[in-house]
What does this fold into?
Amino acid sequence: MAASKSKNQSSLGLHKVIMVGSGGVGKSALTLQFMYDEFVEDYEPTKADSYRKKVVLDGDEVQIDILDTAGQEDYAAIRDNYFRSGEGFLLVFSITEHESFTATSEFREQILRVKAEDDTIPLLVVGNKSDLEGHRQVTSDEARRKAEEWGVQYVETSAKTRANVDKVFFDLMREVGGKKKAENKEGRKDGERKKKRCCIL
Ligand code: GDP
Ligand code: MG
It folds into this structure.
């Protein structure tokens, strides 16, 4: 009982976020800017890594666990495992590469498939490299329309200037935290049933 309570509390305070998107859009640069306040220009493109940081979210101390994915997610089994472990997703494209925007639809499909049992999946669409306005290939309108269709927020960021970097991580954590709190209240009875079933097994 005590063990399950503390487990529950720690999962409430630890938000698992996954960076998803095509190669080169700035998933690592956004992660490293959020973690260490620096712009890293040449992060190893094939390296996936996870990071953890304590932050204060609306007065509560919580931890964010960020999984920065890389090329391995081409292997469906690895990708599905990554996605399954995620509680929230930053679906990143680069505003300078239209193909990376098109690819977000495919990534979203994959997330929905893996998370089929969830009716809401905390997710933000992130248009990165907003400092490269002169090279823009995706208009804000086009991206916003897509996000509206999906019922999610669209935010433009720059890992270089740090514009909106905190915003996307904090807004996502708020969504993840809100969802967990709602489920915890609603699903308490359901949770009890599940616990009993586990005991029998
Ligand atoms: P990933 O493959 O999605 O992890 O992309 P990276 O984070 O490795 O970034 C790919 C390239 O784009 C690197 O050269 C970064 O320095 C650059 N980059 C990433 N984000 C930005 C940004 O917001 N603005 C600019 N100008 N360059 C960026
Ligand atoms: Mg990377």
